[in-house]
């Protein structure tokens, strides 16, 4: 039935006066089968689409309402939905027609009338809607009931007092028990939306309600299944048995062809798994989830993207899901860039000793591709691979040196940064690469890369013969450098001086003077003074402090804290899961969600639990709103670290040299990364791991506590919402 | 949920606007035009500005867009946009700027029905077509009995099928279509080989037929203790809304009441023992900085009674290639400078035989020293009556209370399109 219409001719800008005349003529003269009026209405709809203001047509269009032709009625209704709000004075004339339609014998007409009325946000329409809506919610026809259910949500957003006064919520609750599953699913959707908007309505399901809803799944549309599955978050299991039974009853939905059904089932399974204690059950569910997740990668690129961003979260929380599937994440040459970048974030996390070789070969391939973000991230991933898997260190270094040899500027810069991290992981193993890096010093022009090479020279000054020459050259432009480079230079000079006093003694005073007298940046000045005093008071102490042992780097910090993950996973498949932010941090009016406590909550999840009180509502203007909620204990810890950096404990004196390794681009703030507390790698089930060892909060003196995500400062390609403050763009758009 | 639904053409002109909620205005379309349509570098299908998120899918020369101000389910929105596209294609044959303009009134009717307050509702094509019809076949649904039947169907457990379908001859066609994904390294090792399969059905069956469908699924055959050498291990299966998932979950039977006409019964994935229909052996040599020489051989590994057709190899050339000469005895090869590839088209290769191409690309002198990234060679092809996974349809049983006889047909097709890649 591919008979296509022929309406393109109406897509031209028309004049209101002409339309008015045409409609009036048609109404007066002969209009066989209303064809003339239909044509004019089509022109009007086309003009609405093109953005021409047609509100002046109101009186004439309303006169078409009595025409007994569904197609015309629908166009008039569309007009009323578009302009009803603009002409409250004229809408009165339409109301009797609506009310008559609400009592039509044809259920399609009845539903259409209620549905349309509820789209017009005017008090007079809302008042006129009350009675018809009450009847529609009890209509004999399921189609009318399912339409009316959504209308309650519409009305609630328009004026919640009417809904409360007329007890429509109670009627909606009744519909949860409707015999028709489609009606049930729409009632669930409406109630969920109302609860999300309301201050005093909380949706809570008992176990028997939850099982009733699950039973309705079999008979409702795919979309209805999603609404129902989603609403199961309103049910808190009181025992592991309850949770187990529910998972058994929904797990077969993983085979649905609609990816949104699959992801929503996964969301609920992950949620319920927090209330299941049996290792076998959890392992079984993890195993069940893997294949459908992989299948999502055969969907359209947009769905693949959603899936990939969620997979990144899921494998952090449940590492056994997909643990043997790294190959499915290898990029196709023609994948869209957003799919490639999302895959790349997953690849090194699934690397093991066994597959490291294949993974490295693959990353090497990517590092020579054209897209700059992609190649850079590939190089970063090679670095992470080397740090994660010690046996991969040698081949990774080999590949990195090969890449450096290609002399492609951005690849070179990334490689230097990455090698710095590898040197920190294996301090004495790869010293032979240092001279090779030094050959390329002049090609480095990005602050992060410069800071990296400066760190290397300072750290290994005693092994580099001409360290003083190199430093001398590098400090030549000291005053023009970015702060992170200046900080690195300062520390490196101190290190040089301590290791080779002869070579450093000429350079150091110059730098200290610049840092303390010529530079405006307080961080740099303070650090300059600190070194100065330290060196002049106690040179031995200076040596132990500046060249002290560094905590080893590892990729464990790449994993988000369990509690935060549990919270984010409550938003699986949603926008929040794509940005890895809880919605209340970037969406106005979004309510924070947290994993509810219950006697059934398993010990691992309980330990990681972030209590709702710690979450709190987002503050209107603060930096905190861009960051996933931080447990209170953690927050105060950081505040302390910030306000009393060096005096509170003697240990923290070791801080400054450590901190100096980190390019500090912005003042230390509790960032997303601060949630990434160390946890041991290699175990397949993070639950197990947490039982062995509770998560230590980052120590205030841990220089890596604020490591700004795995990829250092390089977050250019991280998906994120644009526009700092909520409201900034809203005003612009409304 | 969805606050607004839009369609844009490539110029950023609005072809369809429908606002479902008052939290956005029509003028928001400008923001999308600026940030996505006229932006040279769109790096995500989702753009979030403040609390407002724009989720779009490109199809032919249009953008289909949904806007939301909530933390909406992104997978649901994209699935809905895909569904809109497939509904439109079923209605208009194709979805592009021209067909949108020609059918805009109908599209408004459709999106009023399939989205209510931004919540996707009935989207079963068959049901929609029963009462939202194109001009040519427009008949008013005025009969109350007819309407009630429709509404019951739309909200019922078998929302995809009308009960009163009658055919003189009851037939069902099953098409097994496999897309092969291959990624082969320069050394000839298979990095990744898997099959995305689809089972498409065209059911022309009367009444409410209950169907049972059987494959050579390893798990099923093993359980039945039927020694089967050719059983296939399926990594995962996903089914059409009509398939009873509970039954599949308990004993892996596929039972369903099909929609009328064409639909995708299931999708599956298989990664074990993939038979690669075509093997490509490239030898690519860079002669100094002035020339690249190619010798490419394609071998058809399958039964000699079958043949691969419409084979197209796209062989990348360096960006600074000025010309390329190609020689082959099979098909035609041509250098396409605009895309930096040699396109080699072979109409047919018989199973067991092979074809060879030799070519040389001359390079212009350049100042950049960056090495050539060497994108992979891409091969498109089709092989009829062959499945790369080895999947076979064992049976399709149709039960209807009237007990009619039905005729079933099965076809197999294996193909690759942009997913069969060989590095060199």
Automatic annotation (TrEMBL), chain A:
<protein>
    <recommendedName>
        <fullName>AP complex subunit beta</fullName>
    </recommendedName>
</protein>
<dbReference type="InterPro" id="IPR026739">
    <property type="entry name" value="AP_beta"/>
</dbReference>
<feature type="compositionally biased region" description="Polar residues">
    <location>
        <begin position="643"/>
        <end position="652"/>
    </location>
</feature>
<dbReference type="GO" id="GO:0030117">
    <property type="term" value="C:membrane coat"/>
</dbReference>
<comment type="similarity">
    <text>Belongs to the adaptor complexes large subunit family.</text>
</comment>
<dbReference type="GO" id="GO:0016192">
    <property type="term" value="P:vesicle-mediated transport"/>
</dbReference>
<dbReference type="InterPro" id="IPR016024">
    <property type="entry name" value="ARM-type_fold"/>
</dbReference>
<keyword id="KW-0653">Protein transport</keyword>
<comment type="function">
    <text>Adaptins are components of the adaptor complexes which link clathrin to receptors in coated vesicles. Clathrin-associated protein complexes are believed to interact with the cytoplasmic tails of membrane proteins, leading to their selection and concentration.</text>
</comment>
<feature type="compositionally biased region" description="Polar residues">
    <location>
        <begin position="675"/>
        <end position="686"/>
    </location>
</feature>
<dbReference type="Pfam" id="PF01602">
    <property type="entry name" value="Adaptin_N"/>
</dbReference>
<keyword id="KW-0813">Transport</keyword>
<dbReference type="GO" id="GO:0006886">
    <property type="term" value="P:intracellular protein transport"/>
</dbReference>
<dbReference type="InterPro" id="IPR011989">
    <property type="entry name" value="ARM-like"/>
</dbReference>
<dbReference type="GO" id="GO:0030276">
    <property type="term" value="F:clathrin binding"/>
</dbReference>
<dbReference type="InterPro" id="IPR016342">
    <property type="entry name" value="AP_complex_bsu_1_2_4"/>
</dbReference>
<keyword id="KW-0472">Membrane</keyword>
<dbReference type="GO" id="GO:0012505">
    <property type="term" value="C:endomembrane system"/>
</dbReference>
<feature type="domain" description="Clathrin/coatomer adaptor adaptin-like N-terminal">
    <location>
        <begin position="22"/>
        <end position="538"/>
    </location>
</feature>
<feature type="region of interest" description="Disordered">
    <location>
        <begin position="638"/>
        <end position="734"/>
    </location>
</feature>
<feature type="compositionally biased region" description="Low complexity">
    <location>
        <begin position="663"/>
        <end position="674"/>
    </location>
</feature>
<dbReference type="InterPro" id="IPR002553">
    <property type="entry name" value="Clathrin/coatomer_adapt-like_N"/>
</dbReference>
Automatic annotation (TrEMBL), chain B:
<dbReference type="GO" id="GO:0006897">
    <property type="term" value="P:endocytosis"/>
</dbReference>
<dbReference type="InterPro" id="IPR018240">
    <property type="entry name" value="Clathrin_mu_CS"/>
</dbReference>
<dbReference type="InterPro" id="IPR043532">
    <property type="entry name" value="AP2_Mu_N"/>
</dbReference>
<dbReference type="InterPro" id="IPR043512">
    <property type="entry name" value="Mu2_C"/>
</dbReference>
<dbReference type="Pfam" id="PF01217">
    <property type="entry name" value="Clat_adaptor_s"/>
</dbReference>
<keyword id="KW-0653">Protein transport</keyword>
<dbReference type="GO" id="GO:0006886">
    <property type="term" value="P:intracellular protein transport"/>
</dbReference>
<dbReference type="InterPro" id="IPR036168">
    <property type="entry name" value="AP2_Mu_C_sf"/>
</dbReference>
<dbReference type="GO" id="GO:0005905">
    <property type="term" value="C:clathrin-coated pit"/>
</dbReference>
<keyword id="KW-1003">Cell membrane</keyword>
<keyword id="KW-0472">Membrane</keyword>
<dbReference type="Pfam" id="PF00928">
    <property type="entry name" value="Adap_comp_sub"/>
</dbReference>
<dbReference type="InterPro" id="IPR001392">
    <property type="entry name" value="Clathrin_mu"/>
</dbReference>
<keyword id="KW-0254">Endocytosis</keyword>
<protein>
    <submittedName>
        <fullName>Probable clathrin-associated adaptor complex medium chain</fullName>
    </submittedName>
</protein>
<dbReference type="GO" id="GO:0030131">
    <property type="term" value="C:clathrin adaptor complex"/>
</dbReference>
<keyword id="KW-0168">Coated pit</keyword>
<dbReference type="InterPro" id="IPR011012">
    <property type="entry name" value="Longin-like_dom_sf"/>
</dbReference>
<keyword id="KW-0813">Transport</keyword>
<dbReference type="InterPro" id="IPR050431">
    <property type="entry name" value="Adaptor_comp_med_subunit"/>
</dbReference>
<dbReference type="GO" id="GO:0005886">
    <property type="term" value="C:plasma membrane"/>
</dbReference>
<feature type="domain" description="MHD">
    <location>
        <begin position="169"/>
        <end position="423"/>
    </location>
</feature>
